[in-house]
Specification:
22-stranded antiparallel β-barrel, mainly beta, 56% strand
Length: 716
């Protein structure tokens, strides 16, 4: 069996690399591409074209399974090679960088977690992910209150990722400014075991062992990974161990039962903190001195288990039920001044839902209907202690927080004729946030808030040809403050009584399709109107939130993939976004209760967003097993504060991956090497928005190298 035929083995150790064409003003890149040009021109056909791949992709994130070309909103699908092949697998941003409209920061601060912004949703997050729904194998990784983390996602066990880039509350309710749907690997027909060992600069080490297979009625997959890194900056060490499993049971008569689980132990995630720009320039690897003195950072332990069952019902119906349970212990030391504290959180959240799908004919037109409900509950036991320079002191805060959510939804798709398809969606959500104050020495701050919203969606697809269509939609989203967002800026427990949910209306129109057999294009334009946008501000180390008046966002997103021939793949994505506050004034009260405008940010750009994002990649595979990929990303200027007085300069970074794959009997060896920040750019990997004391900046690593080897064993 030759190397190319191994691309299609079940365990998918494919040589088919990802996407990309490299465009930059760096003369070094021009020289590299010039030297590669003869190889690219003479390459022969050995790789599936984008058009062929897009014809076979079925999207699940829309809750109704459908081909990619029949989704009435902007969507991107990332395959296993683009996630894993030759990657360092340090963060989800490695795979998502190619998705237009998605801007990510904070890759190297594991205490703060990856910040993901999608058309501006999520840009406000001080830590974790806000406003974007994350699903793993059909189980929500986003909490009912809208907070999401990706520290329990095993990239080495991920098969594909679907990204819906527009508001999707009609599908998933609260905090669905976009959707990231992650699917884990399944076991192949022939059992196999794979081990991967890699290491690199700044103390990076990672080991992974995974395997799976198929019996008559059971498909199984298991993965174990262990990672540690010292980090580029002082006090930025991290360790993470994960165990992931997926079991699919075929019960016969088209009935299926799936069990997925994940256990994550992250005992060390140090936080070097943000620093002033002068300090970042003078000593880019230094941490904020107070963060070191108070040993700031977090540790967590999480277990997640989910179950999904589906069965036919009636002639053309299907019933699907899901349930999940998550236990999370979390601790975090903070450096506030003058009194630093530490958070101890024990969290349990669970939920489930039922959906019924029915396919029929309505007035002689094909029709598909889905109805269902979701119910979720989150219970947090939150305590805060005095942080005595890394040692826990007296209890300062003790309360129980409960966030429950109930949602009912209906969707319908009607094929009017062969050219036109209409979509309709409607969802009603009701959420309740309650606080029980157990620290009564400073008064009783117990209370509750009830919020509800109805989210409609209208969409349409018109087929211009068998391979090209127009799509458009009008959709809404709403986002409640999370339990952390509700923190009371007046001190004590309870919640911020003045903070309200934000609501948004999204309109988009676009075109997508195959241009010939070797190119695929998607172009989308959007406008978003937001009422009461939730924005952060910093009070010396602790982040609080307030509502802006109204905001607007508009932009365009372009994604293009091409195969000049079957050995070479190129891709390019570009995003333009104009995100601004239309009306945003902060109000103060004098001693007589008279209101006055303190600050007026109306007309300013939303901090943490960029106008221009450009990504490109070129990849090459050879029938003898060699593969390589060169990519770059240009990130435009951004503002660090609401006042727009601090501008962060633009930057361009490049990355290179090279590898070789060799089959020896039933074993496949694949050594690889990668260079991050190939051109040694000096830039900031994260900007802390509206940071107190002008400590906005977290420097990124300079040029660094990693290398490793993957060994696959087929068990025949």
């Amino acid at each position: 069996m030759n190397i190319i035929s191994s691309l299609y083995t079940p365990h998918q150790r494919a040589l088919r690399s990802n996407t990309f064409t490299s465009i930059t003003n760096s003369s070094f890149i021009i020289i590299i591409l010039g030297s590669m040009l003869p190889i690219l021109v003479n390459a022969q056909n050995e790789q599936r074209s984008p058009a062929q791949e897009m014809e076979t992709i079925v999207v699940e994130a829309t809750r109704i399974s459908r081909p990619l070309g029949q989704v009435p909103t902007a969507i991107s699908v990332i395959n296993q090679n683009e996630i894993q092949l030759g990657r360092q697998q340090l963060g989800l941003d490695e795979a998502l960088a190619r998705v237009p409209g998605v801007f990510m920061q904070n890759r190297y601060n594991f205490a703060q977690d990856l910040r993901i912004s999608m058309r501006g949703f999520g840009a406000r997050a001080a830590f974790g992910i806000r406003g974007i729904k994350i699903l793993v194998d059909g189980i929500p990784e986003t909490l009912p209150d809208g907070t999401g983390q990706v520290d329990s996602i095993d990239l080495g066990a991920t098969q594909n990722i679907e990204v819906i880039r527009g508001p999707s509350s009609s599908l998933y309710g609260n905090a669905s400014g976009g959707v990231i749907n992650i699917t884990s690997e399944e076991g192949p027909e022939s059992p196999y075991i794979s081990t991967r060992i890699s290491s690199g600069d700044y103390g990076f080490q990672k080991v992974q062992l995974k395997g799976g297979g198929q019996t008559d009625s059971l498909n199984y997959f298991l993965s174990f990974s262990d990672m540690e890194i010292d980090g580029y900056r002082e006090h930025s060490q991290a360790k993470n161990t994960q165990f992931t499993g997926r079991f699919n049971f075929d019960l016969g008569e088209e009935r299926n039962f799936r069990v997925v689980f994940n256990a994550t132990d992250q005992p060390v995630s140090n936080d070097p903190g943000g620093v002033k720009e002068a300090d970042a320039i003078a000593n880019p690897r230094s941490a904020r001195d107070r963060n070191v003195a108070y040993d700031t950072g977090e540790s967590l332990n999480q277990e997640r288990v989910g179950m999904l069952y589906s069965t036919p019902i009636g002639l053309n119906g299907e019933l699907t039920g899901r349930s999940y349970f998550v236990w999370r212990d979390f601790s975090n030391k903070l450096p506030q001044w003058p009194v630093a504290d530490a958070v101890d959180l024990k969290r349990f959240f669970s939920g489930g839902g039922i959906t019924y799908t029915h396919s029929n004919v309505l007035a002689e037109m094909p029709n598909q209907l889905i109805i269902g409900f979701d119910i979720d509950d989150q219970n947090d036991e939150r305590k805060r202690y005095l942080n005595n320079k890394g040692t826990l002191g007296a209890l300062l805060f003790n309360q129980n927080e409960d966030f429950s959510a109930l949602g009912f939804f209906i969707q319908d798709e009607l094929s009017v004729n062969e050219e036109l398809q209409l979509s309709f969606g409607l969802r009603y959500d009701e959420v309740e946030y309650s606080v029980t104050d157990n620290f009564l020495s400073d008064g009783n701050d117990s209370g509750n808030r009830k919020l509800n919203d109805t989210s409609p969606m209208l969409g349409a697809i018109y087929n211009l040809s068998p391979t090209v269509n127009l799509f458009g939609s009008i959709a809404t989203s709403f986002e409640t403050p999370s339990t952390s967002d509700f923190a009371n800026p007046n001190g004590g427990g309870g919640f911020n009584p003045s903070l309200e949910p934000q609501r948004a209306t999204n309109r988009e129109i676009g075109v997508r399709g195959a241009l010939g057999e070797r190119q695929y294009l998607e172009l989308a334009f959007f406008t978003i109107d937001i009422d009461k946008e939730i924005v952060p501000y910093d009070n010396d180390g602790r982040t609080y939130y307030q509502n802006a008046g109204t905001s607007s966002r508009s932009g365009m997103e372009l994604s293009w993939t091409s195969n000049p021939n079957d050995r070479v793949r190129t891709s390019l994505s570009y995003s333009y976004g104009d995100f601004k506050f239309d009306t945003f004034q902060t109000i103060t009260l004098d001693s007589n209760g008279t209101k006055s405008v303190d600050k007026d940010y109306s007309g300013n750009q939303t901090p943490g967003t960029v106008k221009h994002l450009l990504f490109g990649e070129i990849s090459y595979t050879h029938p003898d097993g060699y593969f390589g990929a060169l990519d770059f990303m240009y990130v435009g200027e951004q503002f660090a504060n609401n006042a727009n007085t601090v501008k962060v300069k633009d930057y361009t970074i490049g990355n290179l991956r090279l590898g070789y794959e060799r089959e020896i009997g039933s074993m496949i060896l694949s050594p690889f090497v990668g260079i991050n920040n190939l051109f040694d750019e000096n830039y900031y990997s994260n900007i802390r928005l509206n940071a107190f004391g002008s400590r906005y900046f977290e420097t990124a690593p300079r040029r660094n190298i990693y290398a490793g080897i993957t060994v696959d064993f087929g068990l025949r």
